[in-house]
Amino acid sequence: MTLPPKLLALLFSTLAVGAAQAETIRIAIGTQDTTINCATGGLLIRELKLLEKYLPRDGKYKDAQYEIEWKNFTSGAPLTNEMVAGKLDLGSMADFPGSFNGAAFEKAGKKSLFITVLSGSTQGSGNGIVVPKASAVQSLAELKGKTISVPFASTAHGMLLRAIKAQGWDPEKDVTIVTQAPEVAGSALQSNKIDAHADFVPFAELFPHRGFARKIFDGSQAKAPTLHGSLVDSDYAKKYPEIVTAFLRAAIEADRLIAAEPEKYSELIAKVTGIEAEVNYLFHGPLGLQTRDFSWKPEYRQAVKTSIDTLRLMKRTDNDLDVNTFIDDRYIRAAFKQAGQDYDAKLKNYARLPLAAKDAATGKAIGDFSKVVQVWVEGEPLVRHYAGAESAFGALRKLEQDGKKVRVVYAHDRSSGIKLFASDAWFVSAKNDTSAFLTREAADAWAKAHGGKVVDYKAARSAVAGV
After folding, report:
1. Domain closes at, from 175, 190, 222
2. Which of 28, 332, 335, 415 could form a disulfide with 116 if both were Cys (CB 3.0 to 4.6 A apart)?
3. Quick one: 107 and 160 in the same domain?
4. 211 and 71 in one domain?
5. Where are the strands (E) in 310-399, listed by range?
6. 320 and 193 in one domain?
7. What percent of the chain has pLDDT over 70?
8. pLDDT, averaged across the chain
9. Bridge partners of 176?
10. Burial of 367 (0-12, 13-18, 19+ CB in 10 A)
């Protein structure tokens, strides 16, 4: 049967309108998988297919087709290059590369927006300085005249410059600072080709965990707040605000999942990145080294402003980026509202991911977290929690007697509360009171003020548990 010409024309016209309405929308996302604090803005969303769960399907998106593209990077600079070139729509990175992202967009006559924090520390934990394992250096003060490597223009570079300034040193004369990527620094530390290395998440913890470095300085000592967050091309956000909000809803869901089962998702991150689950848990578990926090606290806004100013001083940019328009919290507020959460309440909450647990030895609820020790036993899906070193070290002795292998032991710095690998910590051992510290200097000060003997991990275990 042959249709009349007018009916055929009407049919083709209808099909053409339908095709036009069925828009294909690209969502191209740049991730930094090995920068594990970006996990809730990348790796977990991708691996768990969370974005698909929240993408809009009604209104102007009723017939939309989505093409989700993921691309992984080891640092923020190349990610920024592809965003500016229009090859990516969203990306996640730290405060320094994030600020460079904003400056690079402006230089190109465009604009990017810093739309959320993913994880960070208002204290500055996450960035750190390590030395070779066998080095005699115990503190930053002992690095005068030495060579320190750092990834240039990174958030760790800013931390290092601030720490040097606090020592009263001239960074051009009193130390030699050289640029070095994390993967290069690892080999340099092992072969003692550098005196120290400053780096961002997770390398100041990863290198010590792998046994060839020792952390001597934490970013919190420089009092330099730091963060990782997500950015979006402003033009994309204007065109598809609902998609940007959906991405952030997926990030909030990723955060909920890892908060509920940190061991499980630490293992997933390890499977994808090769970064050990023990390191991932150090950051993402309860009382973690950093806090997953999606709110733009004043300290995080200041961190971005400081990074912009520092990049200008380093002559890495000459743009006068306005932090007040660069940071845009409209989309994360909308995502919080959709998720039924109170953004303003989160903005006021500075607590780390809480720990609600009982002492694995006594069964009593843990109320004081200043001396908590956590033990991850090989073959056990969950980390054990102990109220203090006394019960933890006693349990370790029993585990070893039973032939069980311990994956890792965590302690918490008595002064700052930051989470530590116990094997690299210093302890002040006194009668029924054993406290952990990141630095020998802090341990000495505590012992002087409160009594007790400063010892390393092995000696602390021997003193407490008789091993």
Report:
1. 222
2. 332
3. no
4. no
5. 373-377, 384-386
6. no
7. 95
8. 93
9. 147
10. exposed
Q: How confident is the model at residue 19 (pLDDT cuts 50, 70, 90)?
A: very low
For residue 298, whether the previous peptide bond is cis, meaning omega lies within 30 degrees of 0, is: no
Q: Does residue 308 sit in the same domain as residue 238? A: yes
Average pLDDT over residues 327-339: 98
Report if residue 2 sits inside a domain.
Answer: no
Domain check: are 230 and 218 in the same one? no
Q: What is the mean pLDDT of residues 28-33?
A: 98
Range of the domain at 141: 128-222
pLDDT digits (tens, 9 = 90+) for 97-134: 999 999 999 999 999 999 999 999 999 999 999 999 99
In sequence order, what are the residues at sequence separation of 6 or more whose Cβ sits closer than 8 angstroms to the Cβ of residue 439?
Answer: 138, 139, 216, 217, 426
Assess if residue 81 is contained within a domain. Answer: yes
- Please state the length of the chain: 467
- Report the alpha-carbon distance of residue 304 to residue 462 in Å, rounded: 45
If asked whether residues 378 and 319 sit together in one domain, one would say no
DSSP conformation letters of 140-192: GGGGTTSEEEE-TTSHHHHHHHHHHHHTT--TTTTSEEEE--HHHHHHHHHTT
Please give the structure tokens belonging to residue 457. 């991990």
